[in-house]
Amino acid sequence: MSDAIVSMAEALASGQAKIVDLTHTLDPDFPVIILPPEFGQCARFRMEEVSAYDHRGPAWKWHNITLNEHTGTHFDAPSHWVSGKDVPNGAVDEIDPRVFVGPVVVIDCSDGAARDADFELTPEIIEDWEAEHGAIPADAWVLMRTDWSKKSGAAYLNMAEDGPHSPGPTPAAIELLLKRDIRGFGTETVGTDAGQGAHYVPPYPAHYLLHGAGKFGLQCLRNLDQLPATGALLIAPPLKIKGGTGSPLRVLALVTA
Amino acid sequence: MTNALPFPPKKDPQKRTLVPTLPPMARSRASLGLGVMAAQGRFGLQICAACAAVQYPPRDACHKCLSDDLPWQDVDPSGTILAETTIRVSPEPYFRERMPWRMGSVRLDAGPTLNCHLHGEVGRGDSVKMALKLDKAGQGVLIALPLKGSEHMQDDPTLRAMSCDPKRRRILISNARAPMALALTHALLNAGASHVFLGEPEAWLSWPERKAFEGMENVSILPLDVTDTSSIAKLSAEIGGKVDILINTATYTRPGGIVDNDTSFARETFEVNTLGLMRLAQGFGPGMAARVQDGINSAVAFVNILSVQALMPDPSYGAFGASQAAARSISQTMRAEFRGSGLRVMNLYIGPIEDDPWFQPLPPPKVTPNAIARACVQGLVDGLEEVTCGDIARDVYARWQTDALLLEREITGGGS
């Protein structure tokens, strides 16, 4: 094994492999998911100075930060959803770290999402992808590329009077991915589900079905257009929060240059 | 006749901004009562409970019967100017900068003769209406006003220095999404404000009401979120030197008491209503306090719109009330901290707002955004510190002033 690790390090050093950052900057103005106001809300990212080389601490600068487990680019653990509340080791501190590094495939839905904000990832699209790239390997991350991360401001949530409009998977698509025994599913939008995902049966199928099956979620990803359809390695370790249902994190991909 | 206030010229960048000077601040304890009346826009004096003699100047014992029971009461403000004089020399820096200064004595119909400032439109022999106003030092002072002033009587320099008139001034409304923000914007522009800046939190979240502001003349929407220190620092760096009046409209309301409530909601409530006010005070306060004597469009007032629930326990809005009580405390402290600069802090107390979804199931009376806007502008014009708007706020405030413990029992049913 040490040879394999050394080879990878050499590939990175020589430029044969490169690192792609799939993470948004934690910024007070980055959107968070919006729920009906009578429900509890996702805390926005906030940062307050503790000291800045001044009377509060002459030689150092540091901040207190506040945020939700699901603010910014973040990881969803099975215990995030009611369907996954009894999944063994379903909190971020309990998950086997083995799953934080692993293979990733990317399904490109960017053309469809550009045409239709409510674009759906369907089993047909997945099967077409497999016809071209081969079956989705078991225990792989599957990322839905929509280029949605290139939107900013109000266009990102794309909120209307009938709720947000952004692309996402249908229940049948998630069921098919579960048949492939994927590790987890990731998106560029604010959640793993479509903006209108509340109206599927079951509501929020990605959350409900994935977490019920002990799978993981990643959302608010970016730079998916720099990943190959297959062959990249995803590094996505959440913070080790006791009983945490998710975590903001730095998501990196290793790709062959 | 008072001349209309000219539009201020652009500042000469080579001249130092004048440092605020204040009129003399020292008062006897009894005389502080003048400020209490002035802060609320009331005209009154001590009236002896034993012999009904009206007292002036304020004192500790009745000038007629020596009783020390001298409650402050509203008094008929009608009177006649007996004499006037013009002061041309003074050792006080504040008055030296404003010479010559007219003063007079007014015989009140209610009895006493008062020494007072004179509005430019009144002189010896005139029937006048007396008013108690806060001067730049925040102390209550007397001014004789015309019974029926000219169109621009509010622009009289002596009176304007006692008011926080939005005319020719630039105003920052901290949250454009607040229910009263649009009405307030219209009211301020109608009152002659030269520009209204509105803070927009979370521009990434669209809101259809925004359209009403777009295209309005002399109105700008700028990013500002009172929960985000960096956004306050950024906006303050950009326009802090142009904010003459700041009106904090940012409010976060959630129903629920203390025992049955959720601390996540409570935390957000405090983040907006309480710490948000503190952040605004820190971000904009020092710059405003330094510009209190900056000509026609000088900085003049910091306005906090508070729920009257700041004054009473309401189990239906427990955490909200707590945040409002804390905000009121912050506001009172700001008033003390800004007093040395002459920047006024006005609290505008309101009740439940019409069409605010967080007060939807409550019965009338509720206060409308237009009424809040009117009360805010009038409070600024009158130079007040404490203003109530709507039946509920007026009633609760009056009960609180009379007997806060009785109010608590009335609201919670205790002792019934």
How is this fold's topology laid out?
The complex is a heterodimer of chains A (257) and B (416).
Chain A: H1 2-14, E1 17-21, E2 46-54, E3 57-66, E4 74-76, E5 101-108, H2 110-115, E6 120-121, H3 123-133, E7 141-145, H4 154-157, E8 159-160, E9 163-164, E10 168-169, H5 171-179, E11 184-187, H6 205-212, E12 216-219, E13 232-235, E14 246-248, E15 252-256
Parallel strand pairs in A: 5-7, 6-10, 7-11, 11-12
Antiparallel strand pairs in A: 1-15, 2-3, 4-12, 4-14, 5-13, 8-9, 13-15
Chain B: H1 32-39, E1 44-46, E2 72-74, E3 78-87, H2 93-96, E4 101-108, E5 113-118, E6 127-134, E7 140-146, H3 157-160, E8 170-173, H4 181-190, E9 195-200, E10 219-223, H5 229-239, E11 245-248, H6 263-289, E12 301-307, H7 318-338, E13 344-350, H8 369-382, E14 386-389, H9 391-402, H10 404-412
Parallel strand pairs in B: 5-7, 8-9, 8-11, 9-10, 11-12, 12-13, 13-14
Antiparallel strand pairs in B: 1-2, 3-4, 3-6, 4-5, 6-7
Unreliable spans of chain B:
none
Beta percentage of chain B is 15-25%
Measured between the Cα atoms of the first and last residue of chain A, the distance is 22 Å
Write down the Rg of chain A. Answer: 19 Å
According to CATH, the homologous superfamily of chain A is: Putative cyclase
CATH class of the largest domain in chain B: Alpha Beta
Strand order of the largest sheet of chain B: 10-9-8-11-12-13-14
Rg of chain B computed from alpha carbons, rounded to a whole number of angstroms: 22 Å
